[in-house]
Amino acid sequence: ALQAMLLDKSRKWAQLNNKRYASRSSAATSSSAANMQKESLPPEHLRKVMKDHGDMSSKKYRHDKRVYLGALKFVPHAVLKLLENMPMPWEQLRTVQVLYHVTGAITFVDEIPRVIEPIYTAQWGTMWIMMRREKRDRRHFKRMRFPPFDDEEPPIDYADNLLDIEPLEAINMELDPNEDAAVCDWFYDHMPLRYDDRGYVNGPSYRTWRLPLPIMSTLHRLASQLLSDLTDR
Predict the structure, then answer these.
(1) How many other CB atoms are found less than 10 A from the CB of residue 88?
(2) φ, ψ for residue 183, nearest 5 deg
(3) What is the per-residue DSSP string for 149-194?
(4) For 211, what's the count of Cα atoms within 13 Å in the CB-facing half-sphere?
(5) Which residues of 29-39 are buried (b: 16+ CB within 10 A; e: fewer)?
(6) Please, what is the end-to-end C-alpha distance for the chain in angstroms?
(7) CA gap 97, 214 in Å, rounded
(8) Is the model's pLDDT at 131 over the cut of 90?
(9) From CA 114, how far away is CA 93, in angstroms rounded?
(10) Using alpha carbons only, how large is the chain's radius of gyration in Å?
């Protein structure tokens, strides 16, 4: 009888522990699965979240203030991701994926800006030449007065003031169709050759690349402004 009572107690104890811990793990897995299945939303949705939370003095947002204070420690990382994904001078604009908090407390650019080193160096090599011309002609850049806003001026709403303004044209050096034929079709694209079917890049992840000699020689010539004349021994 004592043996049966002990077995019954151990069985009940095991059932109690299973209930206690299994429910937590299943809840965690279900919540992570829910996070994985969230669909992308249009940019207008995020703009509305930002606009609605522009004035935090309203009483209906009094519970969100704690979230905003907690988000402050992530602001340096948000600024880093913004600077990382800033459009290059040869891009007129760049569309990126973002990750945002539902209260509008903080937003992160959810992309890693990978590059192919020889292409990236060559692109900046051509920019060097174009910037020298720009200093002479002043076609793309205008001088700003600082500070651009007064201390008491409210923040400008992006959708109302900036969305409809056409961005300035990208800075592209005109490539020679004969000398630069190996690269001229895709040279100024965002993440060049990412979806190319010739196998130069491993795929959309953009982690590995292998370029043929004609492309590499053209890129080396275009990057000559930035490359050192000294060779390593």
Answers:
(1) 16
(2) -125, -10
(3) S-TTPPPPPHHHHTTTSPPPPP--PPPPTTTTTTTTTTTTSSSTTT
(4) 17
(5) eeeeeeeeeee
(6) 87
(7) 34
(8) no
(9) 17
(10) 27
Structure-token match 């692109």, residue found: 123
**To which residue do tokens 């004349």 refer?**
229
Length of the chain: 233
What DSSP state is assigned to residue 41? -
Residue 40: pLDDT band with limits 50, 70, 90: confident
Tokens standing for 78? 């948000």
Please give the backbone phi and psi of residue 144, each rounded to the nearest 5 degrees, phi first.
Answer: -105, 150
Reported as a single tens digit per residue, the pLDDT across 166-188 is: 888 888 999 998 999 999 999 99
| Per-residue tokens: 127 | 């920019």
| Residue 94 in tokens | 């760049």
Q: Where does the pLDDT of residue 30 fall: very low under 50, low under 70, confident under 90, or very high at 90 and above?
A: low
pLDDT digits 0-9 by tens, 43-89: 888 888 887 776 667 777 777 778 888 899 999 999 999 999 999 99
The answer to whether residue 125 scores a pLDDT higher than 70 is: yes
Long-range contact set of residues 197-203: C-beta below 8 Å, sequence gap at least 24: 201/116
pTM higher than the cut 0.90: no
Please state whether beta strands 107-109 and 98-100 pair in parallel, antiparallel, or not at all (unpaired): antiparallel
